[in-house]
Amino acid sequence: GAVVSQHPSWVICKSGTSVKIECRSLDFQATTMFWYRQFPKQSLMLMATSNEGSKATYEQGVEKDKFLINHASLTLSTLTVTSAHPEDSSFYICSAEGGASRGQETQYFGPGTRLLVL
Amino acid sequence: AQSVTQLGSHVSVSEGALVLLRCNYSSSVPPYLFWYVQYPNQGLQLLLKYTSAATLVKGINGFEAEFKKSETSFHLTKPSAHMSDAAEYFCAVRTGANSKLTFGKGITLSVRP
């Protein structure tokens, strides 16, 4: 139980294009989802908190116009990297709160999406 | 404010040896504590969590951790290391459902044949 999927698992794109990453909770409903970025050999950096049906809350230093987050349903959140540049290349990981059945204090993570911008 | 300290960046053990990965936390309120494991190019998998019930928590793959309030620690142990345990391990703390999950910097576990 508590499975979170991400799609795509990896993507290569040209500089200036936009890329959308999907995060789904497969067997539970998630009111709150999170988006993290991870650089090589480093810990996870929280980018934003996504609540179903409302605007995302971005961490300081994260450009909300560059990293568009939509949480349209209780099982789906999307991250769109707009006008991607090489410095946006990274490993993006989403997580979802477990809710009443699996513990609202617990975050379950997706497998991550590797983005490479050429 | 909450924080997590994972001392050292790399631990190497022999197969069959005890695994001990240290985690100390700082929190102004009773915390929720977590250990996650990350294999190369994958997301994080929950190993175990402490949520104010039993102080000795058993998780998946034979791992367990003990919450010690007096020492502000939540060390992860496994009696006998397996080659498949080689991965990155993250300790994390959260003070409530509406608070951020704060990670330690992670520690790499290597297992020697």
Features:
heterodimer, A: mainly beta, globular, B: 113 residues, mainly beta, 0% helix
Would you mind describing this structure in some detail?
The complex is a heterodimer of chains A (118) and B (113). Chain A has 118 residues and is mainly beta. Chain A is built from one helix and eleven strands. In chain A, strands 2, 4, 5, 6, 9, 10 and 11 form a seven-stranded mixed sheet that branches. Chain A has a four-stranded antiparallel sheet with strand order 1-3-8-7, with no helix packed on it. Chain A is globular and about 40 Å long. The relative contact order of chain A is 0.33. The model of chain A has no long low-confidence stretch (mean pLDDT 92). Chain B has no helices and twelve strands. In chain B, a hairpin with a 5-residue loop joins strand 7 (56-58) and strand 8. At the A-B interface, strand 5, strand 9 and strand 10 of A face strand 5 and strand 6 of B.
Fold topology:
The complex is a heterodimer of chains A (118) and B (113).
Chain A: E1 4-7, E2 10-13, E3 19-25, E4 32-38, E5 44-51, E6 57-58, E7 67-73, E8 76-81, E9 90-97, H1 99-102, E10 107-109, E11 113-117
Parallel strand pairs in A: 2-11
Antiparallel strand pairs in A: 1-3, 3-8, 4-5, 4-9, 5-6, 7-8, 9-10, 9-11
Chain B: E1 3-5, E2 10-14, E3 19-21, E4 24-26, E5 32-38, E6 44-50, E7 56-58, E8 64-68, E9 73-78, E10 87-94, E11 102-103, E12 107-112
Parallel strand pairs in B: 2-12
Antiparallel strand pairs in B: 1-4, 3-9, 5-6, 5-10, 7-8, 8-9, 10-11, 10-12
